[in-house]
Specification:
Blueprint (H helix, E strand, L loop, with lengths): L9 E4 L9 E6 L3 E7 L5 E5 L10 H7 L6 E11 L2 E2 L1 H5 L6 H10 L2 E11 L3 E2 L5 H15 L5 E3 L6 H7 L9 E6 L9 E7 L1 E13 L4 E9 L5 E6 L5 H8 L16 E2 L7 E2 L1 E3 L5 E7 L13 E5 L21
Parallel strand pairs: 1-11, 7-9
Antiparallel strand pairs: 2-10, 3-4, 3-5, 5-6, 5-7, 7-8, 10-11, 12-13, 12-17, 12-18, 13-14, 15-16, 18-19
């Protein structure tokens, strides 16, 4: 029987960053979830979480996989480092490219495969029925015995709550949070058996526009002043509740003159070409939001942020400078 890559095991979101007892903690990476197989006949397959074939998109990883032992299956994350932090946007350019185009991007922004699980290994066969600790031992042995280096990265793992807590400080380089895995847990394809904690921080930004209408805002488009004083777009909120939208609408006004975003277009979502219909507002209102650590290299939030409240005590000049991340405003 020919072994095939299973569906990936998934995680359910949790609110606590504390490592539970009888669990291992791992950093949560900002990249593409990927399963990789190196078959006995020499074929290499890199598959996305949703089953798409990404092999040609990452030729540097596919080529490196040819040197792995036969019949190996890995679960992990494909990441790109740029300017000393994880750069998710450098990954997006890989998909839907020709082989030549992907090779060019691979030379400019080489990807790494962060391995956090070993699903199959040579004569040992399918490992998904074994406990996490057994699979982890086998994964560490694979790295040690093969002397694996770039583009391979062994994901850190710990059972020490203090060590796991310390990894939350890695948000400065784009780590998203933590993943918790029960030590005696088998790999369950397609099931949400792990736990994930996404690091978030409360911070401020200027309300520059809304989707929907000023009278009934659906989401808020946010900005921050750059070093020259220009209002730059930094991200958008998730959909507001009806009650929150009504309360915010009472404090929004149409621009009284020129607006720094006049003539701009905004994407309806990360990675899509669909244009969002927005209404500009007078950019004087400051809002507090809960944002995760997933930033692009320009300092924009990659995921929607959660609207918390209006900061009536703050002015646009009080919010963090564009590109500075999630530091709270002064005062």
């Amino acid at each position: 029987m020919v072994w095939t890559l299973p569906e990936p095991m998934l995680a359910v979101a949790v609110d606590s960053p504390v490592l539970p007892a009888a669990h291992a903690g791992e950093p949560k990476w900002d990249g593409y979830r990927a399963l990789l197989a190196r078959y006995a006949d020499g074929r290499v397959v890199i598959r996305s979480r949703r089953g798409a074939d990404m092999t040609t998109a990452f030729p540097e990883i596919a080529a490196a996989a040819m040197t792995l032992p036969e019949a190996v299956g890995l679960d992990g994350e494909v990441v790109v480092w740029a300017d000393d932090r994880l750069a998710f946007e450098r990954l997006q350019g890989r998909l839907n490219r020709s082989s030549a185009g992907a090779a060019k991007l691979a030379a400019q922004w080489p990807a790494h495969f962060v391995a956090f699980d070993l699903l199959r290994f040579g004569a040992e066969g399918d490992l998904t029925g074994r406990h996490y600790v057994e699979r982890r031992d086998a994964l560490e042995s694979l790295f040690a015995e093969q002397g694996l280096g770039a583009p391979w990265v062994l994901c850190p793992s710990t059972t020490d709550p203090a060590v796991a807590e310390g990894w939350l400080s890695w948000s400065s380089v784009g780590m998203e949070g933590l993943v918790f895995k029960r030590l005696n847990q088998k790999y369950a394809p397609g099931r949400r058996g792990w736990r994930k904690y996404r690091a978030r921080a409360s911070t401020e930004a200027v309300v520059g526009a809304v989707s929907g209408s000023i009278a009934s805002p659906a989401t808020v488009l946010l900005g921050r002043l750059d070093a020259s004083g220009a209002l730059r777009y930094v991200g958008r909120t998730s959909v507001l509740s009806r009650e929150t939208g009504r309360a915010l609408a009472a404090q929004l006004t149409a621009p009284s003159g020129g607006h720094p975003w006049t003539g701009w277009t905004f994407s309806a979502g990360w990675g899509t070409k669909e244009v969002l219909r927005v209404e500009l507002v007078e950019p004087v209102l400051v809002g507090e939001v809960a944002a995760d650590v997933s930033l692009d290299t320009a300092g924009r939030w990659r995921h929607p942020v959660r609207w918390l409240r209006v900061r009536a005590d703050a002015a646009p000049g009080d919010v963090p400078v564009f590109g500075s991340g999630n530091e709270p405003a002064a005062g």
